[in-house]
Amino acid sequence: MKHDCIITLTTDFGYRDPFVGIMKGVMLNINPSVTVVDITHAISPQNILEAALAIEMSFESFPHKTIHIVVVDPGVGSSRRHIIVTTSRYLFIGPDNGVFSLIYQSPLEDLSVVHITSEHYFLSQKSSTFHGRDIFAPVAAWLSRGIEVSKFGDVITDYVRIPLPVPTLKAQDMLEGEVVYIDRFGNATTNIKIHHMNNLYGSDHIDHPTVLFKGNKVPFKHYYSEAEATGLYSLINSFGYLELFVYRGNASLDFAIRIGDKVSVVVN
Amino acid sequence: MKHDCIITLTTDFGYRDPFVGIMKGVMLNINPSVTVVDITHAISPQNILEAALAIEMSFESFPHKTIHIVVVDPGVGSSRRHIIVTTSRYLFIGPDNGVFSLIYQSPLEDLSVVHITSEHYFLSQKSSTFHGRDIFAPVAAWLSRGIEVSKFGDVITDYVRIPLPVPTLKAQDMLEGEVVYIDRFGNATTNIKIHHMNNLYGSDHIDHPTVLFKGNKVPFKHYYSEAEATGLYSLINSFGYLELFVYRGNASLDFAIRIGDKVSVVVN
Amino acid sequence: MKHDCIITLTTDFGYRDPFVGIMKGVMLNINPSVTVVDITHAISPQNILEAALAIEMSFESFPHKTIHIVVVDPGVGSSRRHIIVTTSRYLFIGPDNGVFSLIYQSPLEDLSVVHITSEHYFLSQKSSTFHGRDIFAPVAAWLSRGIEVSKFGDVITDYVRIPLPVPTLKAQDMLEGEVVYIDRFGNATTNIKIHHMNNLYGSDHIDHPTVLFKGNKVPFKHYYSEAEATGLYSLINSFGYLELFVYRGNASLDFAIRIGDKVSVVVN
What we know:
3 copies of one chain form a homotrimer. The first copy, chain A, is an alpha+beta fold. Chain A contains 6 helices and 15 strands.
C-alpha cells in the first residue's frame, strides 16, 4: 500500500503514560490512512532546546509533505499560541514557544507561520491540559487530509524564537562553542558545525583541526574506530557537528562532560 | 491506504525485551492489513489496576471497531481464563483478572464477555508462559479479519472484577478520594471525577472548590499556567479527574505524593 | 490495505535519541509502502551477543519475506563489512560482527551471505558514524522494493561468527549451561534447550528433571502459577529454553542471578 501521508511525533511525554497512543488514536480517527512515526518521546520534560535539536536532526530524513508534530509545552493551557510552520517541503505543528527556532534558521524555502485559531478543527471535548490530544493531533490529521493551511488561521510574523547557543569567535584563530546534546552512547555533540570550522581555517579540507576541551587537546578523527580504546577524541558526526567521543566507551561519563561545557577549535 | 482494522497494545512487557515486536509479527502474519498501535508497555509489572486505568484513559480516542489488547497477567499459564469483551463500539482482549474492571463500569452499550476456548485460533506452538504471542495476538488478528466473536467461545457472566478505589462521602459536605495514578510529569490523578464534585456542590459550575491534601488547602485552577511556579495546585485534568500539580515542577517529587494518598473536596 | 513488505529493527540506539525515527524516515522515503516494526532498541550498548539472542527469539514470528535489520555495531565506520544474510524465508541486514551467529546455526534453508558494496544504494550524504541511516536503512528499503540481493555485492563465506556459550556435558549424566538473558520480569533464560535435556534423559517426556543452581535443587514446573509465591523454580520457557523464575517475583533480584551464572541439569 501507499502511505498517503506521514505524521511524526517528537514529545516529552515519555513511554510510561498512554498519552502518545491516545494522540495516534485521535489521528487515525480523523484520517484512517495516515502513518504515524515516533521520532522520540524522551525529550527531557519541558526542555524546549532539546526538542528543537531533535527535530532539526530528523526532519529532512522524511519524505516531502511529512507533517512534524512537536509537543514540548511548559505553558500548556495558557495564552501561548499554537502554530503551523509551512515550508516548501515540510509542515510543522506545535506550540509557539521557540521549539521551531532551528527550523526558522534552516534553508527551507517559503517559510511562513500560521497561528491556529479555527477551533472547529479541535476535538470537541477540548481540555486545558492535553493539547497534544485536543489540538495538535486533530489539526495534523485534518492537514494530512488536504485541508489548506490558510483555513486554520492567519499568518503571523512575531512568532517566538529562543536564544540558541552559537559558537563565537574568541580571537581571529579561535572559535569557542559548547556541548548542546549528549546521546545514549555518551557522545557529546557541540554547536560547532563543519562550515564554522571551514570558515575558521579558510578551507573545506581540514585534516587535523586542533580541538580543545578543558585545556587539553582532543585528537581529531574521521570515524570512531580510528581512535584508541581509551582517551577522548573528536570528529564531525553524522549531523555535521563537531562531537567528542570515546571509542567503545562513554565520553560523557568517562570525562564528566555536561551540556554547556565549552569546546574550542584553534588554527594551529 | 485505508487501515482495515486497528489493534492496540497495553502491556507490562517493557521496552527492553523483544516480546512486543514478536506479538506484532504474529498479528501481521495472520492479517497483513492490520495496523498495530502501542498504548503503553510500561505498566508496572503485574499491576492490574494501573493497566485498568491506562486502557480507560485511552480506548475512546480510537476509531470504532478498534480491538484493544491488554496483557498484564500475573497468572499466565494457570487456569485463569482468556476473554473477549465485546461492546457496540470496541472489542477488548486479555486475561480474566479484572484488567477490564473500569470498562465494565463505562457507559459502553451491549457489553458482553466471551470466554476464549477455541484453541484452533491459537498459535500451534502454544507455550505456557507467553500467552501474548500464543493466544492474545492470534485471537485479535483473527477477530480483525472478521471472524465472529461467538466462534471463540461462550458468553460468561462471572468474569472477574477487581475492587476499585472509589471516592466516599465522609460527611454531607465532604468527599474523600485518593491518588490513583502519577504521570511522567509528576502530576497526581485522583479518583474524584468532575461529576462527583458536581454532585457534592449541587452544580455543574464549580469555580472554586475547596481541595484538601494532608491538611492543607490546594488552590484550584483551570489550567497549569494559571498557577505560580511553586506550590501545589489542583485542577480537573484532561480525563475529567481531579489532579494535583506543580506548574513547571513535579508535584509527586516536590510534595512526596504517592499512590493511595487521600485527597478531599469540601463545600466551603 | 496490504503490507507489501515488513522491515524490523533491532538496535542498541535506545529510546531517547531520534536515531530510530530517522531510519524510518529514510526507509519511507525510498519505499512509501513499507511497514516498519520495532523489535527492540534497548540492546545494551554494543552488546553483540544480546542482539544475537533477541533476533533469534523474534525472527520466526514474522511473515515470510520480512527483512530484519540488526544494528549493534561497535566498529561503525571501520573496515568492518556490511552484510545481507539471505535465506529461503527471511532476509537479515547488519554489520558483519557476529550479530547473526545464531541465525547461521538455525535450520533456515539456502543461507548465503552477501557483502554489501554497491554504494549507489547508500544515502548520498553518507557519514562515517551513522550507518543505520546511511547504509542499513536504504539498503533494506531498496531490497523491499524488489531489488535482487545479488545487485548489492558478492557472496562471501568468511563472515564473522562470535563464540556462543553452549551447554557442555560435564559427566554422562550432567549437563552444565549458563544464564544468557534476563528479561524485564527478572526471569533468567539459560542456554539449555529442551532438545539438550531430551538427549541427556534419552526421552522427550521429561516430567521432573533435576535442575541445580548454586548447589541447590531448583524445582521444575510447567508454568509460572504452578509454583509457590516464593522460592526459585525452573521451567521450559516460550522460546524452548530452560529458565529460572520466581512466581510473581523477580528471580534475578531475589536470588542475585547474573548473566554467565552456571545452571546444571542432572539425571537423578
